[in-house]
Amino acid sequence: MTPDIIIAPSILAADFANLAAAAHAVEGAADWLHVDVMDNHFVPNLTIGPPVVASLRRATGIPFDCHLMIEDPKRWAPAYAQLGAYNVTFHAEACDDPVALAKDLRAAGTLAGLAVDRDTPIEPYLELLPHFDTLLVMTIKAGFGGQAFMPEMLAKVRTARRHANAGHLDIRIEVDGGIADDTIEAAAAAGADAFVAGTAVYGADDPARACRKLRALAEASRVRQTTSDSGGRTV
Ligand code: DX5
Ligand code: ZN
C-alpha cells in the first residue's frame, strides 16, 4: 500500500564517510532516502554521482529518491533509473523538454519527478504534470542544506495541489528545504504529501525518531485540513 505521507531523509546532512549507516539509521521509519546529486554547475555545490548511488543501492532496501541538481539531465538522469532509483527528479530550469525526459525515465522503470527552484514560477509547468509522478517544490534555493524554510514557497504547493485535485492527477507534491518540526505542518496543510528533511533528521540524536515525529506532525496537519474542509465534521 502506498503511504499517505512520504518522509524522505536527505543524506546530504549525513556523514558522507558512513552513508550505509545513515541509510540503516532510518530503515523502518523513512519511506524514501533522498539523494541530492549536485554537479558544481547547475548549483555551486558538488556531492555524489552514480558510483556512490550504485554502492549505496546495495547497502539498503529503502527506495531512493534521487534529486538531480545538475545540468544536462537528459544525458545523466536515465543512469539513475538504471541503478535502481525509485524516483528520479530533475530540474525544470535545466531541461528544454521535460516531458520527453519524463517519458525516458518512466520507460527506464522509475518514477519521474520535476523540480522547480525558488525563483521559478509553477504556472508554466502545470500542464506538464500528467507526465510526472512527483513534483518537487523547493522551499529554499537549491544547493545547500541547513537553510531557512521559505513559507512563501507554499503558494506554489497550493497552486499545484489545486491543479492536481481539479484534474484528478496521481502526483506526489514534495517539499525540500528547511523541513522540520516547526515547518512541516504548514507544508502539509498547503497540500504537500512528501517531505524531504536533511538537518532535521540527521542533525537529530535519533534519526528514526525524528522521522516518526515528522510523520506524526504531517499526518495531524492533514487530518485537521480534512476536518476543516468538511466544515468541521470528521470525515
Ligand atoms: C538542497 C537539497 C536538500 C537538502 C535539504 O538543495 O535539495 O535536499 O538536503 O536540507 P535541509 O533539510 O537541511 O534543509
Ligand atoms: Zn534535495
UniProtKB/TrEMBL annotation:
Binding residue positions for a divalent metal cation: 34, 36, 67, 176
PROSITE patterns per UniProt: RIBUL_P_3_EPIMER_1
Active site as annotated: 36, 176
Pathway: Carbohydrate degradation
Reaction(s) this enzyme catalyzes, per UniProt: D-ribulose 5-phosphate = D-xylulose 5-phosphate
Domain of life, source organism: Bacteria
Binding site for substrate: 10, 67, 143-146, 176-178, 198-199
Cofactor note: Binds 1 divalent metal cation per subunit.
Key words of the record: Carbohydrate metabolism, Cobalt, Isomerase, Manganese, Metal-binding, Zinc
GO terms under biological process: pentose catabolic process; pentose-phosphate shunt
One Gene Ontology cellular component annotation held by this UniProt entry: cytoplasm
Entry EC no(s): 5.1.3.1
Cofactor: Mn(2+); Fe(2+); Zn(2+); Co(2+)
An example Gene Ontology molecular-function term: metal ion binding
The keyword Isomerase is assigned to this record: yes
Family matches, as HAMAP family: RPE
Entry-linked NCBIfam families: PRK05581.1-4, rpe
Function: Catalyzes the reversible epimerization of D-ribulose 5-phosphate to D-xylulose 5-phosphate.
Family per similarity comment: Belongs to the ribulose-phosphate 3-epimerase family.
Name recorded for this polypeptide: Ribulose-phosphate 3-epimerase
Organism: Catellatospora methionotrophica
